[in-house]
Amino acid sequence: MVMTRFEFAPTLWNQVQSFQSEMNRLFDRWNHTHGWTASGAFPAINMWEEGEQVFVEAELPGLDLKDLEIFVTGGRQLTIKGERKQFTPEKGVWHRQERSYGSFIRSLSLPFAVDPEKVEAQLENGVLKITLAKHESAKPRKIAVKAETN
């Protein structure tokens, strides 16, 4: 009698791993608070420093200005809080819904202390632009050196 090795287990194992990978991708995109998201945290943010200022841009398409709050706490923490309302077609049927909706909070550590009295923000074409000025305590100061004379 000739015995042949049965290759069912490795094939089944590969299929299970493939299924698990697909499920992980599906659930990685699901955000219990915000609905479906196509990529990581919402909103997408860019931050850069130029001279005495730090600039922050956040993509917020479809957000009403009344649903947006910006806080600076502790001089080095910027928080953007808001809510994008869910659009529901009156008579239509969804075929795809990738834009997230719901409440969000993004907090960022700033590269230096900022003056909360010198923060400017504007929402233009769905992009929030924030300009934060460096606090006086964070600016470099020249220290006078004293010499001892004998």
Architecture overview:
This protein is mostly beta strands and 150 residues long. It folds into two domains: 11-36; 41-87 and 101-140, Immunoglobulin-like. It contains one helix and nine strands. The chain has one helix at residues 8-29; strands at residues 30-31, 35-36, 45-50, 53-59, 68-73, 77-84, 102-109, 114-124, 127-134. The strands form three sheets. The protein has a four-stranded antiparallel sheet with strand order 3-4-9-8, with no helix packed on it. It has a three-stranded antiparallel sheet with strand order 5-6-7, with no helix packed on it. The termini are far apart. Mean pLDDT is 80; it is low at 31-39.
What's the quick description here?
With 150 residues, the protein is mainly β.
Keywords, separated by commas or semicolons:
2 domains; Immunoglobulin-like; 1 helix; four-stranded antiparallel β-sheet; mainly beta; three-stranded antiparallel β-sheet; flat; single chain; 9 strands; 150 residues
For the sheet with most strands, the description reads: 4 strands, antiparallel
The figure for the number of domains is: 2
Give the CATH architecture of the largest domain: Sandwich
- CATH-defined fold name of the largest domain: Immunoglobulin-like
